[in-house]
Design goal:
- With about 280 residues, this protein is α/β, with parallel strands linked by helices.
- The protein contains eight helices and 15 strands.
- The protein starts with a strand and ends in a 6-residue tail after the last strand.
- The relative contact order is 0.15.
- The chain binds adenosine monophosphate.
- The site of adenosine monophosphate (AMP) has 14 residues, from α3 and β9.
Length: about 280
């Protein structure tokens, strides 16, 4: 009997590449031949099952796989009792309510009694139901954005990332049902074993590292207090004396989104030789 931990991973589509990249970066190394449905990792006691993104939830719910990577939207729509234990930071999109540009409908509640085309009928029926709105959900597998043109629906609910597809199809967004991204799922109330916990730690370390940079600089010792205010670091920045009297090297981890603000402040505080490096993994 195999002691490997099984993880269900999307084989095709938008989530496939970033999922594989994340696993590899987290130290779960594997080589995939085109047709293999499963592969055993070289570097970890893990077996990857390659399946459609919308089958992942069912396989984890059935216990065929202990963990899975799928979209939060697909998890909601599946109706299975699963837990999203980690947000993975890719596959971001919004399940959006939209109507034709010239429609008199202004807000989601105005769709009461009307037809709404969507690839997420359960989620959408629940969303409208929670607002006391009855809609007729028209389930479609793809091309949801043409449903109003074809007069099979009065409004649609579809996944949007940039919004350009909706715009091109003459649709106007009027509400947000769900903000989605790729997640790691496990069975609710099913305790994670040691290998599963290690997988979570390793994936989390990559996700955390991706939004951070390691910043190094030289600075006059007198500027350290000011620099520490600008970049407090995880606990405190490391300060290392340099051979040159009165100068120190300061190292710290900074959120990538703050670099725009922080780098000019560091320069103004007297820092020189500022280096910004990417971080592979980070366990806080
Ligand atoms: P797939 O149909 O296999 O390409 O995967 C679709 C999944 O990718 C969705 O369920 C979402 O979780 C995610 N996704 C991210 N952005 C988008 C988008 N703009 N349109 C559709 N799906 C998206």
């Amino acid at each position: 009997m195999s002691t490997n931990l099984r993880i269900a991973v999307p084989t095709k589509g938008r989530l496939a590449e970033p999922s594989a990249g994340l696993l590899q970066r987290a130290g779960i190394r594997f080589e995939r031949s085109d047709r293999a449905l499963s592969v055993t990792a070289r570097s970890a006691p893990v077996e990857l099952l390659f399946v459609r993104a919308d089958d992942v939830a069912e396989l984890v719910a059935d216990g065929v796989a202990s963990l899975g990577i799928t979209g939060l939207d697909l998890l909601e729509e599946s109706g299975f009792d699963l837990e999203a234990i980690l947000r993975l930071g890719f596959g971001r999109c919004v399940l959006t309510v939209a109507v034709p540009k010239n429609s008199p409908i202004q807000q989601p509640v105005d769709l009461n009694g009307m037809r709404v085309a969507t690839s997420h009928p359960r989620t959408v029926t629940r969303y409208f139901g929670d607002q006391g709105v009855q809609i007729d959900a028209v389930a479609m597998r793809g091309s949801v954005e043409v449903a109003t043109k074809l007069d099979v629906a009065d409004g649609i609910v579809d996944l949007v990332s940039t919004g350009s597809t909706m715009l091109i199809n003459g649709l106007r967004p009027i509400g947000r049902v769900l903000e989605s991204e790729a997640v790691l799922v496990s069975g609710t109330g099913r305790p994670l074993d040691d290998i599963a916990r290690t997988v979570v730690t390793m994936l989390d370390s990559v996700v955390t590292a991706r939004s951070r940079r390691y910043v190094l600089m030289n600075a006059p010792r007198d500027s350290v207090a000011l620099i520490e205010e600008i970049i407090p670091g995880i606990e405190a920045p490391s300060v290392v004396p340099l051979a040159h009297n009165g100068m120190v090297a300061v190292h710290s981890v900074v959120e990538t989104d703050r670099l725009w603000t922080v780098l000019p402040q560091l320069k103004a505080a007297g820092a020189t030789g500022i280096l910004v490096l990417s971080v592979e993994q980070m366990i806080a």
